[in-house]
Amino acid sequence: MIIVGGGIAGSFMAYLEAKKGEKVVLYERNPNQEKSPKACSGGVSTMWLNYVGLKPPKDVIADEVTGYDIYFEGKELVSYRGNRTILYILKRGYFERWLQQEAEKEGAKIIYKAFYPSVLPDEHLVLAEGASGFIKKSMGLDEKRKLTDFHTGVQLIGETPNVEEHVVKIYLTKYASTGYAWIFPHHLGGEVGLGVTLPHAKEAWPYLYKWMEENGIKINPVIRQTHIIPTNYPQKWRYERVTILGDDAYMTNPLTGGGIQAALYSAYFASNNRSLPLSLSLMYKLLYRMRNRFRNPYSCTHRTSRGTRRTTWTRGRVGRQSP
Ligand SMILES: Cc1cc2nc3c(=O)[nH]c(=O)nc-3n(C[C@H](O)[C@H](O)[C@H](O)COP(=O)(O)OP(=O)(O)OC[C@H]3O[C@@H](n4cnc5c(N)ncnc54)[C@H](O)[C@@H]3O)c2cc1C
User: Fold this and answer.
1) Which one, 142, 215, 237, 275, has the greatest CB density within 10 A?
2) CA distance 206 to 175
């Protein structure tokens, strides 16, 4: 099996398949993932990591989150503080590298260079290239998409007085009406970011600064990150000799925020269902299962936030994205 992309989806797939005794070669074009990681805030539910059987070591975790605040246009909507870790903030780059090391221990071979085949290899090809999807497109496996199926995420990382240790802050705001703005803890201080749909990509940075100014949010940034987030789910994500995972298969849902969990779960699901043709209807079943996992002691507050996010999202869809 050849896996293209050593992000979360590809590295986890390499680990799962190597563990089963499959001969795996993983290609990752970025040899410095720790120093120049994928643009991402790194938030992932501990429940999901448990579900797919992963226990990341302390040194790949920037923060263990036990509480959250959700704001709606500046007003606090839900505030929760507990004593159980509900979310990890992963150190992106370090987390992938740890998965790759685990895969290597199981016998996978990792090659740190770009993979661009001129002919389709004989082995099963797993595409986990992230948002670029270059090989998928060149093989004619890309599905027709609308511009609104892509989001642009922008964020600043650095010292900020607005961050609270062990707490994530989500802001439902007109400046990010199809997603949200956020303040997350980070090992360099905090992360302040926002997501908009692709037609508004040019406004993403001005919206972030405007939203920060209106809400009195300050940061001394050492890193600026921007990246595309493909959303809206694939019609089909396994072909005869090709499986597509994670962002490459448009699996992030801006409402549930879970690009990392979708990347992990798509690898987990594909590896456990090797011969199934993976398609949209299966994806819905999969997401339904994911959603049910949230019916935990916090389900009430989760449901409230989901409802509100759905409302803002619908408003965004009918064209009220511009503030
Ligand atoms: C600003 C921002 C904040 C985010 N915050 C969160 C968050 O808090 N929680 C969350 O769950 N999700 C978040 N996401 C989404 C999340 O980052 C992605 O959904 C996730 O990284 C997808 O993982 P992946 O493995 O599919 O792709 P990626 O992580 O993009 O990995 C793809 C890999 O493939 C490699 N590659 C590509 N082409 C080739 C090639 N030809 N040869 C070799 N290697 C190749 C790339 O170098 C890369 O390492 C955020 C996204 C953004 C933009």
Assistant:
1) 237
2) 9
